[in-house]
Amino acid sequence: MILLSFAHRNEAQCFFEHFQFSPSQDFNGLWIDQSEGLGILITGEGQFESLNLLSSLLASGENISKVVNLGVAGALNSKFRNQEVYQVRTAYLALENNPQFKSFPIQQFKDLKTCDCLTSSKRILKQEIRTKLSPIADIVDRELWSLGFACSKAKIPLFSIKVISDSDDNDSKNICEEIKELAQEFSKLLLNAFLANHRKNSKGDNNQQDIDHELYQLLHDKNLYFTVSMKRKFKTLVSKVLLNKEDIKKKQLTVSISEDNSKKENALIVLANLTAELNPLRTEIEGQLNEMTRTLVKIGWTIKYDSNIEDKWISVYSKIQSSSQLHKLSKTLESFPFEDWQDVFEGKADV
Amino acid sequence: MFNRVFVEEDILNLPRTKKILEHFKNVDHEIIHRIDDYFGRVKKPYLQKRDNLNLYIGKKRGQLVKEAPNAYGFGSDPHYYFIHSYNCIYECEYCYLQGYFNSPDIVFFVNHEEIGEEIKRLSLEVHKEKRPWFHAGEFSDSLALSHITSDIEFYFDLFKELPNSFLEFRTKSVNTKDLLKQKPLENIIISFSLSPSERTKKSDLGCPSSMTRIKAMRKVTNAGHKIAIHLDPIIYENNFEEKYEELIQEILSSVDLTKILYISVGVVRFTKDVYRQVTQNYPKSDLLAMEFIKTADGKVRYPRPIRMKILSKVKELLLKNGFKANQVYLCMED
Ligand code: SF4
Question: Which CATH code fits A2-197?
Answer without folding.
Answer: 3.40.50.1580
